[in-house]
Amino acid sequence: MSKVKVGLVQMSCVSDKQANLDKAIAKVRDAAAQGAQIVCLQELFTSLYFCDVEDYDNFNLAEAIPGPSTDALSAVAAELSVVIIASLFEKRTAGLYHNTTAVLDADGTYLGKYRKMHIPDDPAFYEKFYFTPGDLGYKVFSTKFGKIGILICWDQWYPEASRITALMGAEMLFYPTAIGWATDQDEETNQDQYNAWQTIQRSHAVANGVPVISVNRVGFEQDGAMKFWGGSFVANAQGKLLYLASHDQEEVKVVDIDLNESDYFRKHWPFLRDRRVETYSPITKRFIDED
């Protein structure tokens, strides 16, 4: 398949898990009505972003994967003939939890999951309290509408993650994400942070010659202390912005992606061909020093 229509769902969330799931499903339907073939939901879309505090009660938000949410989304995927990318809080077993994205194919088949590899621990983003680092490795899923690589939020800062996923054959990289501004920050800092976030992801598109689709949440949370900055975007295989969402509105947008561009850009800017793979072994070190 040379062209694919990708749907982005950028939305705000509330404290009611079922209400968020119902809202997401309604927006998937909207995207499908606009012609979307693959629909990506934002990180942890069934809840508010709960990692702002270390609270044991929040573990009650987790569920099995496959489980209730994937069952509901599988039925929608089959009904609408769309691929759905769904980021969920996974309860693997008693006391073991992951930040996980499930992939449902266009016939409703559950294709598998990717568990977030890089876990942050910053003020208001205390994810290491909740999430065990992923142990499934990097993943590519063969869907009806192409081979998709999934990475999650904090993974977006790491070129190693995008490179490995692209080398596994991903034709598109999807990043469900949840990131925002502290509302007591100045506007210059806000823009510097957003530009860094967008730039690093667009660089993954350039370096690997694949489109990047990043879907972020939007709206005020944490009692107004955090404004999730939206700004979801699609970049083509040369890093060109094909779509940029607002910072303060919910959006459902369908964007056309030409997968043939990857071959064109990789031939004209042959970054994959020119890699000196025999020189890269030091990258597995924590830091290159004498110890």
From TrEMBL:
Gene3D superfamilies: Carbon-nitrogen hydrolase (3.60.110.10). GO terms for molecular function: hydrolase activity. It comes from Sphingobacterium corticis. It comes from the Bacteria. InterPro entries: Aliph_Amidase/BUP, C-N_Hydrolase, C-N_Hydrolase_sf. Residues 4-259 form the CN hydrolase domain. SUPFAM superfamilies: Carbon-nitrogen hydrolase. This is Carbon-nitrogen hydrolase. Pfam families: CN_hydrolase. Keywords: Hydrolase. PROSITE patterns: CN_HYDROLASE.
